[in-house]
Amino acid sequence: MPRSTNAVSSRRRRKKILRSAKGFYGSRSKVYTVAKNAVEKSFVYAFSGRKKKKRDFRSLWIQRINAGVRQYGMSYSEFMKKLSDNKIQINRKILSDLSMNEINNLKKLVDSISSSS
User: Fold this and answer.
1) Exposure letters 39-70 (e unless 16+ CB within 10 A, then b)
2) What is the pLDDT confidence band of residue 114, given thresholds at 50, 70 and 90?
3) Closest C-alpha to 84, from 97, 76, 17
4) How far apart are CA 114 and CA 13, in angstroms?
5) What angle do CA 113, 115, 117 make, to 5 degrees?
6) Which of 14, 17, 27, 40 could form a disulfide with 31 if both were Cys (CB 3.0 to 4.6 A apart)?
7) DSSP code at position 24
8) CB 69 within 8 A of CB 100
9) Nearest alpha-carbon partner for 78 in 26, 113, 105
10) pTM of the model
11) What is the pLDDT of residues 14-59, one digit of tens each?
């Protein structure tokens, strides 16, 4: 009995890898074995990139809050301490948006926590 190769699924599997490697440089997008390694590595980068994205956004929010609050003579750490002392729970994403787009509301928030301390 001859050996069965199941060419249909083999071809489909290879095409899937080569489609994922589309746009890669040189043989990484043309040669199956090289492309397979490149695609596997790209999945590793994609996983770690999703984690890194969260870190990057948090640091961006902190920088924006710091820049917004320094206009009113307060540092980021002082501001966050006074927020927690006054039991105001606003996350950094919202505070960042306030400092970028709603400067008047941020000023009111800073004034309210400054006067209460």
Assistant:
1) beeeeeeeeeeeeeeeeeeeeebbebbbebbe
2) confident
3) 76
4) 63
5) 70
6) 27
7) -
8) no
9) 113
10) 0.77
11) 999 999 999 999 999 999 999 999 999 999 999 999 999 999 999 9
